[in-house]
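Researcher: First entry.
Model:
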Amino acid sequence: MATSLPPSEYQKRIATARDRLGETDADAAVWFDATSIQYLTGFHHVQTERPVVLAVTDDQCAITVPRLEVERVDPNPHVDTVVSYFDYPGSEPIETAVELLEGLGASSIAADSSGAPATMGYEGPSLSAFFSVEIQAWVDRMRWSKSDAEIDLLRESAQWANLGHQHLAEHAEPGAHPATVSQRASMDASRAMLDALGERYVACVRGDGPVSVGFISGRQTALPHGHTANRRLQDGDVLITGATAVVDGYRSELERTMFVGEPTDEQKHNFRLMLEAQSIALDALGPGVSIASVDRAVWEYFEEQGVTDLARHHVGHNIGLGAHEPPYIDRGWNGAEETMQPGHVYTIEPGLYTETAGYRHSDTVAITDSGTERLTYFPRELQDNVIR
């Protein structure tokens, strides 16, 4: 199984960006977003108060970075020119980028934003103070569909996420602390992944890993984004788990609703409602299917069951380099009437949330030419998600 993208992927992406640039009157395309820069060049960095600016022209791929990133980006074969400033706020990052762009002969820019994001206190000037800037979202749209190489990485991620989840299920028991269970499961799966992949494992400064596993429990599960409470597991607890693995920056998503001890009749009922909703969504997926129709199918089921008041979010979202990416499986999203295409990879995670507990599975599913491929495969049925 592949564990890193081949150089040809980045070459194709930069070529596509140049094609988009050629369709405009701009002289250069610019990106401030760290994920977009990683997507185009493979250079990954943590977005801080020190802006990184990537510029692409018809014959150059150039970047400005703070001095502390020079050694990391210099060897990158997809970047032709590296220019650095010392630091921020002691230097002028945008002015450095302006000088680079002027040296490339650019007077008009197509950029992913008018300036660097105000991250960690950055307050510098915008690029639009120096150039005519047209806002573009080319990379966001390019990331909708994954290549075969990208799906290979997500498939590999799902394999290790599954192992991490197995370890979590083994370590979770009454009296155990969630932090300890999560740490043990993450460590055991990460060690196995590193031992198996060896030098093929690609370390990445962005994202956790290699394998990250955890859960929320008890009343925190009634909140879709509940926190890990400082309480030990007890018989009768509901858990909502999460497992992922980072493979060359790509991650899958695996979530399960689990029970510590035999669930009550009410818990079984809510679990089965959630499971049926996810099954409806999984069955509705496919190439050429309206994105909105999948969300509508689940909502109609919730209406039939009289539980719309227990729903808190849409059915799912695309996933890849980012944990959440468009397209969103959301009937109210402005792109929802577009259709699913081969290469789209979605999380499928309709949930129900009562006053005392939440119920949500999440699986990562790739749209194929002929249908779908479920990449995550931890068992979904009730009997397989009871910790006895």
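Researcher: Second entry.
Model:
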Amino acid sequence: MTKVFVDTDVCIDLLSERTPFNSTAEILFTLAADSKIKIFVSAITFANIDYILRSQYSAKHSRQILSKFKSIVHVLAVQSSTIDLAINSEFTDFEDAIQHYCAIESGIPLLITRNLKDYKKASIKILNPETYLTSVKF
């Protein structure tokens, strides 16, 4: 089964119903719910999502959304070594560096994001959701 790491922006597209990006995110996460791909996210993704969702919903509703979301993704720990790599990287955006190195340290060769410009220093394959979805066959 294909393993992909999904950046926070795509997760927020789905969970906050951010148009027009949510429709592509829905397709991507449906593949995971149908066990056609395995989606991995970092633990910090949950904190970032909750921060955004709480501007839209109550804390209780945000937690309900996160609980359902957790049932279709695999959560990766952010290790001390991940932070060291991010600190010493050439990434401009620190959070993106953490995501990148979390994927690498977990052996995931592909990161899906809409934020391609901040991953120019990546050493794994970076695709936006649309490109990924047109490249896979099930």
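Model: Note on the second entry: The radius of gyration is 14 Å.
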